[in-house]
Amino acid sequence: MEFRQLGYFIHLAGTGSVSQSAKVLGLSQPSLSRQIQQLEENLQVELFERHHRPMALTDAGEFLYRHIKQPLHELEQAMALTRRFGDGRQNRLIIGSVVSVLYGLLPEVISQLRQDIDGKHPDFDIKVIEMSFEQQVTALKSGEIDVGFGRFVCHDPLIHQTFLRHEPFVLAVPKWHPLAQKHEAISLSDLANDTLILYHKTPNPHVSLTESDPLLQLFEQTQTQPKNHIRVRDIQVALAMVAASEGFTIVPDSLKTVRTEQICYLSLAHEFTSPMYINTLAHNPIPHLAALHGAILSVYERHHIQAPVPFTEDH
User: Fold this and answer.
1) Which CATH number goes with the domain that contains 246?
2) Which of 32, 80, 173, 237 could form a disulfide with 232 if both were Cys (CB 3.0 to 4.6 A apart)?
3) How far apart are CA 119 and CA 296, in angstroms?
4) Are residues 67 and 198 in the same domain?
5) What keywords were assigned to this record (predicted)?
């Protein structure tokens, strides 16, 4: 029995089509069929009911599928991560980050990290990739990135999160908006007749819109709701829509330098904040992670930001 045959079996069980799986796997249909037949011969059972269209698993096939799908996936991840020890990744740190964190202190952290490491590891390289939280989870598991910076809590047991800090939310309104002339903090009730621009990913269909969208949750906490809301694909588009006078939005404080010619950023009366996390693969040692923690501590100290407790315990 070969390891790859189990992978072919998992893929074919998912599609139920030899032609479709063969195309994705880069095999001819006869070659894929032969690999599956060899697996069945080694196990001395039939795994597929071939007269079904799409192909269906036998009871033995169902049993094998249930028991090897997750372990096989984890083994593939472990192999991908192990290969990094031989491909130069020990001298490289690949970081994935959501857009809102890139607008904040992350560039300064990376600059500090380069300064801290260059003397000890002159060949050290840092690469930053903009990606959503969902993309980070996938990239961490595949080994595409080493570390992710995001704002959502992750419930995946394979992902380890370290809390960094709470960043204040600010209100973004067009420069012509009447509230732009106010000097005191703004209450969300003052915006009840305006259009809220949402920018988070389409919410979970199994829960209500209010429960799944962070901005609508802020309104829920103050027992008010905006009269209208629209949804755009990301935070940059949301701010462009504010600049075009299509409504208002609420963003982390680090974005208040964006489009300042057309947008006025105002403090909110309620102390709403956006959490920030470092995401890594659980039980996976990351080269230079301690150095990254040290760079974050240095930058936070310069900006008088309270240091994350796990970092202070490490240093």
Assistant:
1) 3.40.190.10
2) 237
3) 18
4) no
5) DNA-binding, Transcription, Transcription regulation
